Amino acid sequence: MSIDSAAPAVTEADVREVAARSRVAAVELALVTRAAKDAALMTMADALDAATTDLLTANARDVEAARAAGTAEPLLDRLALDAERVAAMAQGLRDVAGLPDPVGEVLRGYTQPNGLEIKQVRVPFGVIAMVYEARPNVTVDAAGLAVKSGNAALLRGSGSAYESNRALVAVLSEAASKAGLPADVIQLVPGTDRSSVNYLLKARGLVDVIIPRGGAGLIKFVVENSSVPVIETGVGNVHVFVDASADLAMAERIVVNSKISRPSVCNSAESLLVHQEIADEFLPRITSALQVQGVVLHGDRQFAEVNGDVVAATDEDWATEYLSLDISARVVAGVDEAIEHIRRWSSGHTDAIVTSDLQAARRFVARVDSAAVIVNASTRFTDGGEFGFGAEIGISTQKLHARGPMGLPELTSTKWVVFGDGQTR
Amino acid sequence: MSIDSAAPAVTEADVREVAARSRVAAVELALVTRAAKDAALMTMADALDAATTDLLTANARDVEAARAAGTAEPLLDRLALDAERVAAMAQGLRDVAGLPDPVGEVLRGYTQPNGLEIKQVRVPFGVIAMVYEARPNVTVDAAGLAVKSGNAALLRGSGSAYESNRALVAVLSEAASKAGLPADVIQLVPGTDRSSVNYLLKARGLVDVIIPRGGAGLIKFVVENSSVPVIETGVGNVHVFVDASADLAMAERIVVNSKISRPSVCNSAESLLVHQEIADEFLPRITSALQVQGVVLHGDRQFAEVNGDVVAATDEDWATEYLSLDISARVVAGVDEAIEHIRRWSSGHTDAIVTSDLQAARRFVARVDSAAVIVNASTRFTDGGEFGFGAEIGISTQKLHARGPMGLPELTSTKWVVFGDGQTR
Asked: What is the C-alpha separation between A14 and A30, in angstroms, rounded?
C-alpha cells in the first residue's frame, strides 16, 4: 500500500480492501471497554512523543515538496510540524482519554403496557472516514476521537501531507495494536489523487459515514459524489448584525473580535450588517476600528462613503467566505432586512445579532436558520471547545444527524434493545 | 403541473420551481404555533371526510388503469381506497394533532464559565421530500407528520397512484390554506416517470432531506443518486435465532408470529436460525407449526431432512427479503455462528434471539449491529406505534440521524442558541 509518485495508481479494489479491514477492526473495537480504549489512547500519545524525530523527518519531506511546488507560506505553515506541535497532538490524545465514553449511554428507556422493556442505546457508527486537507494534526485528532467513540478511523488527508500522515498513522496504529486494539482501527486510505477519494465515496456498506473537512471545493465534491452518508462541515459565511438598539461599544468589540481573532477559521465573521438608524454614528466608528486592525471592508454605497479605503461590494462579496482580513458590509433597514439578507447569503454556520431589544433578539433567533445563532457575543464561540465538548471533530452545517460543533456523541449512532417474555402481536 | 400520459415531460426547472415554493412555505410554517398546526390538521381531517366521494372517484381511475395494465391483486389492494380507508386516514391526522410538538424542545442547555448561555433547540428540517410506492395513505400520513413537525412536505408517490395522490394533496393543501397555513406546505412533485425523481434527488439546497419508502430497488436508486441527504428506510431481512436454552413453546409462538402475522411488511421474519443442540426436537416442531400456516421453508440440509415440503436453500435465500409466506431456515453451532450469519446477511433492520441464557442474550445484543435487537419477543414489535411513538414515518436502517422507527422528533433538526453579554475570545 506504500504509495509514492512513482507507484502505480491505486485501484478501487485497493481502497475497498483497506475499508473492509477497517470494518473488521470496527466490529472488534465496538466491544472494547472504556478502560481499554483510554489505555490505548495514552499508549498512542506516548508513541507520538517517542517518535517525534521520525515524524519531523517525514513531515520535512512533505514541506520540502510543497515548497518546491510553490505552495504559499500560510499553507506551508499549516502543513509544517515541529516538536511543540507533535507534543500538542500527543496531549490532545490524553485529553480525549479523559472525556466520558459516549458508547452505552441509554438515551431513552421505558416499559410498554404489554411489558416490553425498550431502550435506545448509543453505539459506534462502525467505520468513520475523514477526508481533509493540509493540517497533519487532523490525522491525530480524528484517530483519537474515533477510537474513543469505538469507531475505526479511515483517513484520507491531502496528498501534500501524505508522508506526514503515513508516518503518523504507522505510529498510532502500532501503538493501538500494542495496547491490544486491532491495528486496523486506524488506517490511511491509499493514494494521493482524487480517484482514491472517489473510490472511498462509493464504499457504501463498508464505510458508515464520511466527514469532509477543508475548503468549500473539497466539501462540495464529497457531498455531490458520495453514496456513503456524509456530514457536511465547516463552510462559514458568517454574519454579525448590529441592531439600532445595540450597545455600540459592545458591538464594536464583538465585530472586531469576530473578524480578526483568527480570520482563517470558519467561525470568523465575513459580513457585517448595520441598522440604518445608527449608520451615521456607527459606520465611521466600526470602519476605523476594523481598518486599524488591517481589515479591508467591501462595503455598500453608505460604507463606501465613509472613506476611500472601503472597496465597493458586489453580490459576489455577500457570497464570499474570505478567510482573510476582509469583510463585506452593508446597511439594512432593520432586523427583518438583516434576516432576509442572512437567509439568502449565509452558509448556515453561525450568525449573530448585537442588540438590547428583546423582541429583535427573539425575532432574529427564531428566523435565522443557522447551526448557531448568537446574541451579544462573538461568532468565534461556535466551537466544540467553547461549547464545553472537550473535543471537536468539525462543525456540521447540515441538518441531518448533527448540526453545529460535533463532539464524541455526534460520532455515534443508536440501537434499540427490546427485552420481552414471549410477547407476540 | 397537471400531468397525464399525454402531457409533456416534466423538466428539472418544473421540479425545482415546486421545491422552491415548498422552501418558501417552510420558512413560514417553522414559526407557526402548535395550536395553529393542530387546528390545521383537524381541518385537513374534516376536509378528507367531506371529499370522500371525489377521492374515491380519483382512486378508481388509478385502480382501473392499474388493473388494465395487468397489476397483481395484492398490489391493487394496496392501491385501492374505500370509504373506510379514507376515514382511517382522516383519523390518523386527528391522532397526529394530539401528539406533542417536537419543535422548540430544549435538548441541552447550560451556562459556560464565561457566562455564555448555550442551548440546543429542536427546529424543523424545512422541506422533507418523500418518495414512495403504491399506498395512497402514505400521502396523508407524511403530510400530517410533516405539518406537525413544522416541515413542508414535498411528496412523490408512485405513478400508479398519481390521480389519487393529486386529489389527496389538493384536498389537504386547500384545507391547510383555509386553516391559515401556506397552501404550499403540502405539494406533489410533478411527473410520473423516474426523471422527476431524479430532479428531486438533485435539489440540494431546496430540499433538506429525502425519505424513500418502498421496495429495495426504489430505496437503492434514491440512495445511490441523491445529493440531498437521505434517510434510508425499511428493507428488512429479519432473523430469529432460537438458542439451545430457549423455552421451545415461546420460541414456536415468536417464530410463527414473526413470520405470519403480516408477511408483507418489513419487520416480518425472513430467516430462522436454530441452535444445533435442540435441532432434533425443535426442527420437526417448528417446521410443522409453520407449514400448518402455509409457510414454505427454504432450509439447509438438516431442515430439508425434516420433510419433503422443505425446499433446499441457496445463498440467495439467506439474502432474500421474501415479504411472503416463505422463510429461510438453518441450523447453527451456537450463538456465535448465529451472530456471524446475521452480521453477514441481515439488512440491519431487526434481529431477535429466543433464549433463557443471560450470557447468550447479552452477547447477541452487544454483537448484532441492527436498528432493533429483540430478546424473547416477536420481530413485529419494531414499529413506531408499538414503541409508543404515536405515529411513524418509516423505519430507518441507516446509522446517521435516526435508526429504527422514526416518529416526530426524528423529523426535526436542532439549532444552537447562544446568549451573551458582549463576550469575545
From this structure: 25
Q: Which residues contact A295 (CB under 8 A, 6 or more apart)?
A: A259, A260, A325, A326, A327
Considering only alpha carbons, which residue of chain A is nearest residue B348?
A415
B252 and chain A: CB distance < 8 Å anywhere?
Answer: no
Tell whether A246 is within 8 A of chain B (Cβ): no
Q: Which CATH number fits domain B15-232+401-418: 3.10.20.90, 3.40.605.10, 3.40.50.150, 2.170.150.70?
A: 3.40.605.10
At the topology level, CATH places domain A238-386 in: Aldehyde Dehydrogenase; Chain A, domain 2 (3.40.309)
Sort strands A269-275 and A238-242 into parallel, antiparallel or unpaired: parallel
Record the cell numbers describing residue A103, joined without a space: 458508547
Q: Give the count of Cβ contacts less than 8 A between chain A and B.
A: 207
Interface pTM (ipTM) of the complex? 0.94
Q: Report pLDDT digits (tens) over B32-87.
A: 999 999 999 999 999 999 999 999 999 999 999 999 999 998 889 989 999 999 99
Decide: residue B61, CB within 10 A, 0-12 exposed, 13-18 middle, 19+ buried. Answer: middle
Which CATH number describes the domain made up of A12-232+401-418?
A: 3.40.605.10
The DSSP output letter for A358 is: H
Q: What is the pTM of this model?
A: 0.93
Q: Which residues of B284-293 are buried (b: 16+ CB within 10 A; e: fewer)?
A: eebbebbeee
Dump strand ranges (E) for B263-411.
269-275, 296-299, 311-312, 326-332, 350-354, 372-377, 394-396, 404-406
Out of B30, B123, B375, name the one closest to residue A418 (CB). Answer: B375
Three-state secondary structure call for residue A353: strand
For cell 390538521, the residue is B41
**Residue B31 sits at the chain A interface (C-beta within 8 Å):** yes
Q: Where are the domains of chain B?
A: 15-232+401-418, 238-386
For A261, the closest chain B residue by CA position comes to B425
